[in-house]
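Question (not urgent): is this output format expected?
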Amino acid sequence: MLVDDDLDITTSFKIGLVRYSFTVSIYNDPKTALSEFKEDTYDLLLSDIRMPGMSGIELYEKVKKIDDKIKVCFITGFQEYYLDLERALPGLNLHKCNTLKPVTIADLVEKIKAILDPE
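Got this back:
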């Protein structure tokens, strides 16, 4: 599940990730993403942090209550929001998948594989 309020980002990330054989559902509204989220449907939530209506952090906290097996990767264009993430979710391994925009698809794929396949 990919959630970002920027349609260009979700579209380009989906195209790139599909080329690497990922199945990707995109949402540009975190509230819609939450309303359509179902347990055991997604392996990973790939989310922007700063979005109107609900932050990526809030979205993750809510989907985690529905499916505690979901993994998360946050993407943000702002260093200060990355620091907010560290404060809000101190137990999360931030260096494994979380990244600052811009990010290449190849780098994003490496980070996603690292969180989905932690060996």
